[in-house]
Amino acid sequence: MSISDKISDDRLGTIHVQASTRARRIIFRMKGKELWATVPPRATSSMLREALEDLRPQLEKMMEKHQSLTHAITPEFCIDTPHFSFCSCKRDDSEKTYVEMKGTAMVFYYQSHLEWESEELQQWLTGIIEKGLRKAADTYLKQRLEAMAAARGLRPTGMRCHKMKSRWGSCSLQGRINLNIYMMLLPAHLQDYVIQHELTHLLEFNHSQRFWQILDQHTGGKSMLLREEMKQYDTSIFSLWNHAQKTGKES
To answer: pLDDT tens across 96-125, in order?
Structure first.
């Protein structure tokens, strides 16, 4: 029985099938959130079904893991901000996969056969981008913090930019301010809001009514509106990308 380009399974959903002359056996892979099977040219539907049943526990586990991932870096993923950028460029004439950094512009060069779904690649790319964000943040955000602190006559005891999972910034009792490197992906007015927020903690270490009154004086009375706008972004490398995609769909 000849094999079709798609088969359906009650638990695995639609499985895309592609034949390859280089395939010596049936191989299953995740592409995005869909399961694909690469089969030898002479493979039949019964052979595919048999392989599916043999590997079902592993395939269900693999699919569950990939479906839990809400983000993945793809060739289309890009970051374009005034102080840091990232994009990918296919190079068929190169056997190397590498990253080139010019100033604050980062370009990832890759081959056409690169497996973007690879967890190792995703972790490596994320780490590379985060290094670039940290380098940019150490320069740009520090300059912004120093300028805004001076304008208010405030003196933080120090400043550090690093990766935070759920917070955009923090201020210690000793007056040290920490800023999230993902702030580099926020619009400029929201970067300023976070910095003003943390500077205000040098005067009021809680979120009392007085705190918001002081912050309002340095945000044009828009502290609560800016706070709500911040909820559109998350602390990840996908923050700006996801917002741009969402905005594009709504427009």
So the answer is: 889 999 889 999 999 888 888 888 999 999
Domain boundaries, the chain: 6-67, 79-124, 136-250
CA end-to-end span of the chain: 48
What distances in angstroms separate CA 218 from CA 177, 186, 204, 205, 226, one per listed residue? 18, 19, 14, 17, 12
Residue type present at position 181: I
CA dist 179 and 161 (Å) reads 5
User: pLDDT per residue over 82-104, tens digit each?
Assistant: 999 999 999 877 678 899 998 89
Give tens-digit pLDDT for 190-219.
999 999 999 999 999 999 999 999 999 999
> What b/e readout covers 139-171, taking b as 16+ CB neighbours within 10 angstroms?
ebbeebbeebbeeeeeebeebebeebeeebbeb
pLDDT of 68 higher than 60: no
* Burial of 5 per CB tally in 10 Å (0-12, 13-18, 19+): exposed
Backbone angles phi, psi at 77, to 5 degrees: -65, 135
Class level of CATH domain 136-250: alpha beta
